[in-house]
Fold these 2 entries.
Entry 1:
Amino acid sequence: MASDTHLLGRLLKGSLGYLRRIIRSPTGTGTRRPPKTRASTEASRPRNAGTGVGQLSRPYPGDFRGNVSPRYSPNPDGKPDPGEIVWSWVPYEEDHSRGKDRPVLLIGRDGGWLLGLMLTSKDHDNDRRSNDYVDIGTGAWDAQGRPSEVKVDRVVRINPSDVRREGAILDKRTFQMVAHRLNGQHDSA
């Protein structure tokens, strides 16, 4: 009888432990990790593990030099769209064979390429004569919560398959402010 009581106690304890895991689980299934879904306001894991930092899936054709008509069209479909901030490898302006993984605000398309503007957390205290950076505040694209700025005097091309991580959807008002500054930058060039 004592053996049966001991066995019954172990079964109850195990069942209660399993129920606790289900209750605490974000998925309600007892798994410890939530399912992989795209969260528009949260940073996600890299999506293109086959492309390492510093490697692009095809040669970089150079920065975009034409007129840009920024389009705000974020779509929570798991694919990068204008209006979203994503992480991708961006070539240095002076040497396209070198670069850095960084956040980029997508602003439009050029054929099969996405067009983007680089973000930085370094403060550029612009004076009235220099409007090449726009303050956009903080967001999920920066895990440390630092205020960011968008560089509007350089439009980079990004292959959609080279986007490694989605950071956030920028609010429409802030996107329009960046678009206005971008158009002013290119009108004065």
Entry 2:
Amino acid sequence: MAHIFLSLAIVCLLFQLSAATGIRLQLTHVDAKLNLTKTELSRRAVERTRLRVASLSSSLAASTTASTGNVQAPLHWAQVSYQIDIAVGTPSIPLTVIADTGSDLVWMQCAPCQYCFRQPNDIYDPSKSNTFSKLECSSSLCQSLPSGNRNCDGTDCEYFYSYADKSYTTGLLASETFTFGSVLVPGVGFGCGRMNSLSNSDGSAGIVGLARGPLSLVSQLGAGKFSYCLTSFGESSSSPLLIGSLASLSGAAAQSTPLVQNPNPNMKSFYYLSLQGISVGTTLLPIPSSVFALNSDGSGGTIIDSGTTYTGLQHEAYEAVKQEFQSQVDLPVADGSRTGFDLCFSYPSGASGVDPEARLPLRRRGHGVPAA
């Protein structure tokens, strides 16, 4: 059973995870400073989404069939969408990293590198920091790594992570002081990568994992909750990422839906939602509930993911949405090859065609999603 990947272009999200000092960071879309046209932005977003969904689908399929024994961790990350600026070490150096709700590990490139990709900032050198410390194999964070992703031949905890797009990082698990905005956080566990490859780093020095596993930043901080508000990927302004006490759900318009836990231990890091169906305009589509169901083996279900710009649907659901849009929009179909979209319409000057809204009702509450 295929998974559904949900991402909202303009949305505020609150993830309730247990309390910590509030941290405020700014999320910046990777395309924000490139001065691209709307068509170019759409095309890049479509391609990024396809690669991301393919990567996650491959990872989830492998995790569903894998045993819980000596296996490599699920492959999470594929493409960059949002970045944050942090500082690392004492004295600290500024770094731009990827913020990713689809992966756990916090890691960055470390000097001296055996192999590193280019980054605009200086590569972090642990020998120049007063607060760097290697983590031993007996540490709880090292033991949190799947056995297939760690090497404990010696005292130090060596890690290896590979990704579905052939990217990888390998090095030592360590701890360091991180600076998030004005907040200094000592003892953050991270991967100090000495051999790294990212297929498309977009100026990033590494990844800050925000998923549900013990290695992620939110889990290490004991934050209990985090929230982020994403502006449209076509806007140049940044948007907030709030961790800990600053993250709150308030206001008369605020709605909530519970996160769902995947029963498969290899897939517990992802944020699952309970999608109840899809409607286009006033029409609730006759899509079987089994299409959206999270199954006992961990297959199926709906994931919300910061790295997926557009919503990805299982084939049966996608075809139903596509056909309903075509039936409701009284406009000629256009060639969308320049944008990467499968279905586009010509909108002649003065036309008054119907522009239906797609809605994806979630458990307890309904959230409207603007039609793409």
